[in-house]
Amino acid sequence: FLNLLYQRLMETDFVKTTTLKKYFENNPKAKKRNIKRLAAGSWIYGEFGKWIGNPHKVKAWEWLAAARKEIKKLEDEGKVIPDLAWKQMYILEGSDWFWWYGDNEASFDYLYRMHLENFYKLIGKAVPEYLHHPLVA
To answer: Is the sign of the CA dihedral 95, 110, 56, 88 positive or negative?
Structure first.
């Protein structure tokens, strides 16, 4: 989606796309500005409750941490990690999974577990048994 969006934006005559690096190269004063205040948390409440606190969110984070440990172990052993496994990991690290646990969870739970299963298959490891059962009852 994003590749197509950026491609279409670049094809227009009324939008100019750039990278941060090129922007700062062309606007050196902008690079020297300091951010006076950077808010932490979500845009809704300005805190981290959308990602932590709920037991389902906590369990999803634990599952992600276990998957990350697997990829780290493979790296430490000098194994080559397939690009698709990295892509799957980056999908899993997206904040929306944790945002939705505790709210609108059934479909997100299924998709999150599916991506975790795909990850384990891509790195040649057995899919943990807990991923075969919904986190959300």
So the answer is: negative
